[in-house]
Specification:
globular; mainly alpha; two-stranded antiparallel ribbon; single chain; 7 helices
Length: 142
């Protein structure tokens, strides 16, 4: 069984993603979609912004990446587009449909790497390994 960190919730008013329009609207949806397609097509650039999200958005990351019911790869991808271009996640989801299978594969690999790196840093910094009922297990140096 894969160990998961304990879920942490933060007030939406503190999420960095809100300031970057991840849940907002745009005035020109067509231009935003074209921008999102071009951005997500470039896995290296896209991945670099996923890394920025993982490093620059501590509250949003903790809220999203400790949620066991959330698609973490999708979230960090949506967040990367929001950080780079202030484009909402619904447009990013539409853009995903225009990518080739290879582009999706490469983007997913970047997302997997950034999510795993964030989780590793989180566990190292917080010592929390897994939530089991009301008990919390700690990582101990042996």
């Amino acid at each position: 069984m894969q160990k998961q960190v304990k879920q942490v919730w933060h007030d939406v008013r503190h999420w960095e993603e809100v300031a970057h329009n991840m849940w907002g609207e745009v005035t020109d949806g067509r231009l935003a979609l074209e921008t999102a397609i071009a951005f997500t097509s470039d896995h290296k650039l896209y991945g670099s912004f996923m890394a920025r999200v993982a490093n620059e958005w501590p509250v949003s990351c903790e809220n999203a990446l400790t949620d066991p019911h959330l698609n973490h790869k999708a979230w960090i991808g949506h967040a990367a587009v929001a950080l780079a271009h202030n484009i909402p996640e619904d447009i990013t989801r539409k853009a995903w449909g225009f990518l080739t299978d290879e582009q999706k594969y490469l983007a997913n690999k970047k997302a997997e790497r950034e999510v795993a790196a964030w989780k590793m840093r989180y566990v190292q910094n917080h010592g929390l390994c897994e939530s089991v009922g009301n008990e919390v297990l700690f990582l101990w140096d042996t």
